[in-house]
Amino acid sequence: MDAPVIDQTKLEAFVMRAVGDLSAGYGGVMVSLGGKLGLYKAMAGAGPISARELSARAGCAERYVREWLNAQAAGGYVAYHAASDTYELSPEQAMVLADEDSPVYIPHAWNVPASMWFDEHKAIEAFRTGKGVAWGDHEGRLFCGVAAFYRNAYRGSLVSQWLPALDGVVERLEAGIAVADVGCGHGHSTLLMADAFPRSRFHGFDVHRASIEEAKSNAADSGLESRVTFKVAGAADYPGRSYGLICFFDCLHDMGDPVAAARHAAEAVAPGGTVMLVEPFANDRVEDNLSPVARLYYAASTTICCAHSISEGGRLVLGAQAGEARLAEVFRKAGFTHFRRAAETPFNLILEARR
């Protein structure tokens, strides 16, 4: 066979793209360090600051801080002022890197790829055998990384935008209904709703016992224990009936039998009640999902979402880029007659289902 003809320009462009991705991976370690060491917080609002000043503020060694700052400047995460040899974190950068309550705060999210690297051998084995990897079998940074990443996104949108986009749900929550949060994880979504709607009662369910224990601790810290319960239970067998609202936050695609989960919701929801489905944003065709956000979701889906679904039997392995049409078909099979897109963000689809 003739050797392929290499286009040198295309080769160099692709090499630089690959190196850029490698650089971003290295940069993620720097972001995580900056968050955990308080370096970004020490820079926020400080204006131009020297490496010596920052090291004193954060209680770190200056030589390490200077090298870290240069890495941040090279990546565009801080500005470097050559004339004064100082570094500056802009207000916009501070929202992403320093403000832990910001809906776009990112440092905690780097725990997820850290766990993916740690569990690489499990992914290799899963690829070769076709077996699954259960959520609870992953390295522990996955759970805190996912919970922290979604917590801030939910805090910024759930009560103010997503719930009002559902027909009549806010009014029912204000009057007082029972709410099930299926796949609740650390309970952040449950507690946000409970805090906003004191007349309603909230019940979080998850198969991961360690997450449920964390959710209970979060409830105690927030003072909402009297209106919130958390229990270990699966999506197809959690207790209770006549829920006015049943929520699935970024979890249905992880389940081994999403149709069974939707069918159980159909049985558990009250007459006239609503199922709220929040899923990663995706279009229905692969060719329409070729973007940085979709790349992130497909990668996580490969080693986390699909792997857990397969571990639960994998009757329908949706993956994190299922798209609205496939999700609508799941709920149609479960007996729902109403399904619509209520809202969307660059990262999520917010879908409404009723019987």
Oligomer: single chain
Largest sheet: 7 strands, mixed
Question: Could you say how many structural domains there are in total?
Answer: 2
Distance linking N and C termini:
61 Å
Secondary-structure element order, N to C: HHHHEEHHHHHEHEHEEHEHHEE
Radius of gyration: 23 Å
CATH-level-4 superfamily name of the largest domain:
Vaccinia Virus protein VP39
Helix fraction, binned, reads 40-55%
In brief:
The chain has 355 residues and is α/β, with parallel strands linked by helices. The protein has two domains: 8-99, Winged helix-like DNA-binding domain superfamily/Winged helix DNA-binding domain (Arc Repressor Mutant, subunit A, Orthogonal Bundle); 110-354, Vaccinia Virus protein VP39 (Rossmann fold).
Describe the model.
- This protein is α/β, with parallel strands linked by helices.
- Strand 1 (79-81) and strand 2 (86-88) form a beta hairpin.
- The chain is built from 14 helices and nine strands.
- The protein folds into two domains: 8-99, Arc Repressor Mutant, subunit A; 110-354, 3-Layer(aba) Sandwich (Rossmann fold).
Keywords:
single chain; 355 residues; alpha/beta; Arc Repressor Mutant, subunit A; Rossmann fold; 2 domains; seven-stranded mixed β-sheet; two-stranded antiparallel ribbon; 14 helices; globular
List the helices and strands and how they pair.
Elements: H1 8-36, H2 39-43, H3 51-58, H4 62-74, E1 79-81, E2 86-88, H5 91-97, H6 111-118, H7 120-129, H8 141-162, H9 169-175, E3 178-182, H10 188-196, E4 201-206, H11 209-222, E5 228-232, E6 243-249, H12 258-268, E7 269-280, H13 292-311, H14 324-333, E8 338-344, E9 348-354
Parallel strand pairs: 3-4, 3-6, 4-5, 6-7
Antiparallel strand pairs: 1-2, 7-9, 8-9
Helix pairs in contact: 3-4, 6-8, 8-10
